[in-house]
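pasting General stress protein 26 for the record, 201 residues
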Amino acid sequence: MATEPSTQVDPVSAPDGGPAGELMTDFSSPGATATSWADTLAVLQKAEIFWLSTVRPDGSPHVTPLITVWADGALHFCTGPTERKARNLEQNPGCVLTTGTNRMSEGLDVVLAGVARRITEDHVLQRLADRWACKYEWHFEVHDGSFWDSEAPSEGSPADAPAAGEAHVFQVRPRTIHAYGRGEDYTSTRWTFEDGASVKA
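structre below
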């Protein structure tokens, strides 16, 4: 009979009042401590690429890399309304966003699971567009509840043929976040958020 993994609440993981993580002791080195929220938040804010996992209508997985910004206690990404990930989210908004390294001896991988919700308020989109510009120097116009990229190729057009491109913006508030640390110790830390509650950012 399967048993639940052992956990240990790390009392010092959130000295600034952020959420406290649970150390998954069955998947961590002996004597290890939970990854701090500050270190995990830094990855959520600074990682340039995340991998988005969604579910196709036939139940098979779909995974694609994309860029994100962290704001208002959530990850945000954008995609064309006819792209596969957007169509998947119409049927099933549950998704997972993952980032990290491919090194065995160092790094911190972060996995955020939640439900994607489209953002359509122009004043919120403009604030997010400003963050995209600051982080990636990628400038979107905002109107009609979407991002608009005048330099994006439209779907089905040659890659070198610029055309006006609409992008829907999605917000994913975490239901769970897992952080997997490698180095002197291996650590597995979990945060759980009830009903997608806001995360201190």
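Confidence is low (pLDDT under 50) at residues 1-13, 157-163.
Residues 28 and 107 are 14 Å apart (CA to CA).
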